[in-house]
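Please, structure for the following, as C-alpha cells.
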Amino acid sequence: MKTIAILGPTASGKTELSIRLAKRHNATILSLDSLAIYKEIDIASAKPTPKERSGVPHFGIDAISPDTPFGVTTFMDIYREAAAYAKQSSRSLLIVGGTGFYLKTLMEGISQIPSIDADTAAKVTSMMKKREDAYRFLRSVDATYASRIPSADRYRIQKGLEIYFQTGQPPSRYFAKHPPKPIITDLSLFEIGVERDVLAQRISQRTEKMIEMGLVDEVAALEKRYGRAHNPMKAIGIVEVLEYFDGRLSFEEMKERIVIHTRQLAKRQSTFNSTQFPDHLKAPKEVIEEKVDKQLSGT
C-alpha cells in the first residue's frame, strides 16, 4: 500500500486534486480536517459533496456530530481504519487536509497515556473547576511540563494532572519513559504551492460561493440545534456569521471578516507546513499532480 500526503493551505485545491487522483488510481482518501470531520457542517467546512465523493472511499468526513468532543487520538483511530481498508482492498491511501498538526502527530506519534481510574478522574475534574489554580499546582509539581503549555490549555493541564495523580510521576518524567512511536512509518509528502495573490483571490471567490450556497442558513440551523458552546461553532466561517446574527457585523463586514480570517489561516498553515515537516517537494498543483501520478502508477 502506497501512502501519500498532499499538504497545502486552505483553498489551494487539495480536495479537488485528491479526488481526481483517487478516481484515476482507485485510491482511498483520508481527510485530516478539523471541521470536515463533523456531520451537518457542509458549507462552512468546504468539504466535498457526496456527489463529488462518489466512487471514492473517504474517511474522516462526516464522522462525528458537532456536539461530540474529539482530539488527535480520534484522527489516529480514523487513520488506522482508513489504512486497514486501503490495505485490504489493495488501494493506495491519499492523506489530504489543512490541519497539518494531525499529520505531524501521525508521523511522530504520541506517548501512551496510562489508564485513569475513577478516583483520579473525579479528583482532577474537581480541580479543573478552577483552571488557574489547577495550572499553578501543575507548575509546582512539574515546572518543565507546565512551561510547555499555555495556562488556558484545559486539555493538557487535565492530562498532566491525571498522569501525575495516577502514576505518582511528574508528566515530563512519565513522557521521557514513554516516548512517542510513529503511527505512519512510510509516507511520501508533497505540498501545493500557490502565489499569495492567487490564493487571496481563490479565498474571496470561495467565500462568495459559500454565501451563495447558504452558509448563513447552515449556521442558523447549527446554532438552533447545538448552541454556541461546542468547538466547531468557533470556526472561521461560523463565528463571523454568529457575530452577524448578534448585530456586531453588517452582512458585508461578515463576508470581509471571513476572507481576512481565512487568509490569516492560510498563512499559518503555509508556515506550519514549511517548518514542521521533513524536506518535501513544494510546487504548483499541476507539478504535484504529475509527481503523484507517477508515484501511484509506479513509473
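The mean pLDDT is 95. The two ends are 15 Å apart (CA to CA).
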